[in-house]
Amino acid sequence: MIVTKSWLNEFISIEDKSTEELCKTLNSIGLEVDRVVEYKIPNKIVFGHVLECEKHPDADKLNVCKVDIGTSIRQIVCGAANVRRGLHVAVATVGAEMPGGLKIKPVKLRGVESEGMICSAAELGLADIGGGIIEFDSSIGEFKLGQELCENPYLQDTLIEIELTANRGDCLSIYGVSRDLCAAYSRPLKKIDDAQDQDRRMGIGRVLQFSHTDGLNVNLRYKAIDLKDVKLPFIVTLRLSQVEEKQQSDLDAILFYSTYTTGVILRAYDYNFFKDSEESDKKIKVSLAMNELGYACIYAKEEVASIVGIKQCDVSKMSSNEGLTIIEASYIPPHIISKQMAENKIENGPLFYRTSRGSEPKLNIGLNYFIGMFEEYSQSDIYGGDIELCDEYEDVVVSISVDEINSIIGANIDKTTITKILQNLGFDIGKSQGSSFVVSVPRYRHDIVNKQDIVEEIVRLVGIDNIPSKPFTLREKNPLSSGFFQFKKLRKYRNSAASQGFFETVHFVFNEKAKLKEYGFSCVEESLELLNPIVNTLDTMRPTLMLGLLNAASLNAKSGYKDIRLFEVGSVFSPLREESIKMAFIYSGDADKDGVLNSGKSKKMDFGTFVQSVSNIIGDVALVKHETRHNLANPYQCAKILMNAQEVGEIYKLHPVVQDEFDLDDTFICEIDFDKLSFDLVEAKAYSKYQASFRDLSVLVPNTLSYKDVQEVISQNKTEEIVRFYPVDKYMDEKLGDNASLTIRFVLQSLTKTLEEEDITSTMDTVLNALNEKLGLTLR
């Protein structure tokens, strides 16, 4: 954002402020100064008036001028194409030294004497306005012939470029920056006059009929002007050059100048674009409606004139400085227009940046400023009244007390100072009582929504340098929080996985939705999906860690690794975007490395070995039959993992078809709910000092019987002496028919004595009798 001191001075009195002081103030209130340019016009360059202008007798491109410089009339030879009788110009008199070092002396040009030089803006060190010499007018205030230009504040000026953060759209105008400076200096804002002379003016209703649909969150205001003899003021030309802006016509220049000054988005429509040639009356019909993408659009019948806040179609623009035009001022809340653009991105125009950052919502400010310029610098006819559409809006109200403000800042700021700052910022605090403030936030400050935002405004106006520094009060808090234990738990299982030879991987929390659906996973609901994905292959929140591990394993396999062991701990998301933590493992390829011990022929990883590896990391597990909801698992090698009778995850061999897709060898995967893994305090338990005994029990079991049923019967009927039991062998033979021989190993041990044979036999008989009574199992 570029401003100048003279431009700011139209809304706040800062004549007494030096450039250094002004820049310091801007920096302190959060408007960071990026660049400063001083326009210093040398002495002996004065205002002049061209009395006569005739062609040079010996040069086609030169003119001989008689110029009144107040104290005398000088003859000056000038080569500018735009020099002519009646102009007020800048004259470098004899003895003046130009910014480029040229010293003005009396000279003869093709035999004609010349005493001075008529100057262009660039020759004076001003912004280059083009078009030859300067043509002064009343827009730079009163001046006298012979008066030095350096005495005029519009010419001897200072340009300041400000870097604005994205939330300060209210300062994308001269009026907005002035408003902030008024709060900083506690000076009144010179407001734009709202009153207009409506006497003897034809009403806008005679030429414009406006219709609209409701619920579009749009503010619009229309005026009508019959353009005549539009003259672009010199100050507009100069300032647009200073802000590095060029417009195609005088009307466009004044429109942009008014928008840049006031912050109100202004557009000019060609009246004839809306006019129906078949109708005899002069009234046009303008309608506002929503298009198929959800944008509010201005229509002439079925043809789009503009998308409000986004762009204006070229066919509807006023291309001439003569004729009837409709002037539109518009405002859309920035969060609405930004969301629409994110959902349905379309081509935008040059004013979209201002709309999306937050333009000025008081539309009459911009319209009145614009109309005032036409009343002063043209013979245009202004139609009386205006047509207005306002959306429904509720003020943002924030309640905060003086104590809360001082607590957040860490300094004592008295209520009077806080009150003055909030009032200077334009906040309504009329409902405040006692030491509590009820702050109604003006609409142009859309970035202020909570107490912290209010405090930030107070801090930047008080000045961070004016808040006394205080030493930190170090109060050690109990570090044993839930986060601490979560960290310890995570570190424990990560170290345990690494000790088993697994390597940790870390992936984005995003996955490719198409791939996930292909493998049968439930993705995030459409209404909760990402609005702006990083790339198309990372377009949804991941519901599983498995796909990321598979991709990592595939890349490792393609790099020549035969033994791939990876794990990851990370967040996954349900269809409602509910977050949970999972821990997943993948083991692909060989179970060990080639070497002397295996004669260079390593064994492939199998399901049992993988289960044991996972068990070594997370603790004792039990497996039960399981059918997955996705398509990654081999249905014949898939199980649900139980720990202490609670389901914690699933483990399976990768489906052969999927293995081929990822170019993997035999691959096994396990995914566990990390929150269900144990991290209890380790308690000491009594252990026996007596020798343990081992007994194997081989029983005939039907092939249709699950080991889980056998396990439950033994668990319910075993004696205290049975420390643990587990299957060690399963034998199948044609002679056994539909049965199989299942061998179960029992570990027996007593806390009080060494078990004798009779004790062991009695215990085993108890187990065998229970198996026979409840399942009909007998010894083989």
Describe this structure in words.
The structure is a single chain. By secondary structure, the protein is an alpha+beta fold. It folds into six domains: 2-39 and 159-185, Phenylalanyl-tRNA Synthetase, Chain B, domain 1 (2-Layer Sandwich), CATH 3.30.56; 45-156, Nucleic acid-binding proteins (OB fold (Dihydrolipoamide Acetyltransferase, E2P), Beta Barrel); 204-389, Phenylalanyl-tRNA Synthetase, Chain B, domain 3 (3-Layer(bba) Sandwich), CATH 3.50.40; 396-466, Phenylalanyl-tRNA Synthetase, Chain B, domain 1 (2-Layer Sandwich); 482-676, 2-Layer Sandwich (BirA Bifunctional Protein, domain 2), CATH 3.30.930.10; 693-779, Alpha-Beta Plaits, CATH 3.30.70.380. The protein is 25% helix and 27% strand. The chain has 19 helices and 35 strands. It is elongated, with a radius of gyration of 42 Å. The mean pLDDT is 90.
